[in-house]
Amino acid sequence: LIDPRSFTAQARWKRAVILVAGAFMNLVFGVIILFILALTIKTGEISSAKLAYVYPQSTFADLIQEGDKIRSVNGHRVFYYSDFSMFLALPESADGVIDLVISRGGEKIRYGDLKLERTYIEELGGEYFGFVFENTEMTFGEKLKYTAYSTYNDVRLIGMSLQMLFTGQASLRDLSGPVGIVEIINEQGQKEHTTASGETYVVPLSVRLYNVFSLAALIAVNLAVMNLLPLPGLDGGRVAGLIITFCVEKIIRRKLNPKYEGYVHAAGLILLLGLMAFVLVSDVLKIVR
């Protein structure tokens, strides 16, 4: 006899809710961390995507102007300056050629195959792109908005990472498991950091805590998104299985034996455990080296 309180005895929609609940709570936990971090941000610490000033010596002085707002880089939506700098660091921007879309007076202007070039700016005493982004006034409403953006950005980063993995821009060796994550957290929490030139500088405690908790939020959101992927062995795969079996049973007008779905998820779990073992060994080797 089947226990009426067991998971398998519940209606499909109840089972789906139970399966999604874990991922949902991970997402909520990540959002709470990001909101608390947003409350600590002061005006002047975050720059928007709007240009406050363009130096006359800049190579882009004839293309962009004060008040323009950068909307996207290579098709990726830009909300803050941090987005702009992040997308420039991606492999697809390695050659310095990008597709840039700006907003000016309500009109979108696109510059395709734009070559990014740094120019010597006398006032700054070095080579820069030559434009300055406007600081964001961190009101309570803006902090709520920044929390939503940060959550969306973490989800977007996960999607971009998966895309890079499947397109060959990244490999399985670039993945990190529990060991690698602990090592990264340890690095973020270090008081002293050394630059590529060998110079050592002290990182304030507030910055270290912000970095560690930002990473914790990313991990929480990552767990939520990854667990909902429609792959066998994951909760998302179980939900997909519920939907597929429901559709099949409606077509053939009889119930499927649940053992077949169990075989599929068991195979997926074995593959998942194999991947976890590979990542674990890879993390250990990275630390040893």
Protein described:
By secondary structure, this protein is α+β, with helices and mostly antiparallel strands. It contains seven helices and ten strands. It has helices spanning 12-39, 81-88, 140-166, 178-188, 205-227, 235-252, 258-288; strands spanning 47-54, 69-73, 76-77, 97-104, 107-115, 119-121, 126-128, 131-135, 192-194, 200-202. It has a four-stranded antiparallel beta sheet with strand order 3-2-4-5, covered by helices on one side. The protein has a two-stranded antiparallel ribbon with strand order 1-8. Helix 4 packs across helix 7 (258-288). 17% of the residues are buried.
Order of helices and strands: HEEEHEEEEEHHEEHHH
How large is the count of helical segments? 7
Largest sheet entry: 4 strands, antiparallel
- What's the multimeric state? single chain
Range of strand content: 15-25%
Span between termini: 55 Å
Q: State the shape.
A: globular
Radius of gyration: 24 Å
Low-confidence stretches at least 5 residues in length (pLDDT < 50)?
none
The SS-based structural class is: alpha+beta
Number of strand elements: 10
- Mean pLDDT reading: 86
Helix content: 40-55%
List the helices and strands and how they pair.
Elements: H1 12-39, E1 47-54, E2 69-73, E3 76-77, H2 81-88, E4 97-104, E5 107-115, E6 119-121, E7 126-128, E8 131-135, H3 140-166, H4 178-188, E9 192-194, E10 200-202, H5 205-227, H6 235-252, H7 258-288
Antiparallel strand pairs: 1-8, 2-3, 2-4, 4-5, 6-7, 9-10
Helix pairs in contact: 1-3, 1-5, 1-6, 3-5, 4-7
